[in-house]
Amino acid sequence: MKVALFATCLVDMFQSNVGKATVEVLERLGCEVEFPRSQVCCGQPSYNSGYVKESKEAMKKMIKAFEHAQYVISPSGSCAAMFKEYPHVLQDEKEWAEKAKRLADKTYELTQFIVEVLKVEDVGARLDGTATYHTSCHMTRLLGVKEPPKVLLHNVEGLEVLPLPESQNCCGFGGTFSVKMGQISEQMVDEKVESVESTNAHYLIGSDAGCLMNIGGRIQRLGKQIKVMHVAEVLNSR
Fold it and tell me: Up-side HSE of residue 157: CA atoms within 13 Å toward CB?
């Protein structure tokens, strides 16, 4: 099976290890992974800031970049959800709306693809210790992916996954929200860190780079001894 990696901006610029882990997990599961070099930002930051017209150019570039892919896989529920938004944004441009629909239909978040398409629930990973999982807002509420990461994590040998109190609460990142509403965002991420700390887990695991950067940054500033890992890194642990 051939798949195309939609790396996302944050992974490309700040967390390349997550992109590498994503590729290695997919290859271990028998996928041939390609990386379209023409991919750019999906347009989410500008779109969510209200610049809809200005975002369309980036969206069209992404549609072209992945036009010939069989499946498009992203290690980010948030960015995968943005691809699902393309048909709505481009609905008044018939040609692009049809192409956007095809892209949306073949786009999956990493754990969703592994569980729902490859039908794999145990990737053979091992990580000793206790962990808790952060359910990011975009992945669960917009993309609708809730169970696949939990299924895969519960099958990681040596790892005990503990429930996270108030798991439904946003971590305060929200893209540009954390910039425009910094003081509110700080209070929200502090509450999230308190919830994580209350579990006494060794690891905080998540599926979105933005959330992990936000929570991880706060954990580091507060001097907490909790390791932050993307789910792709966990699934690639052996």
Answer: 8
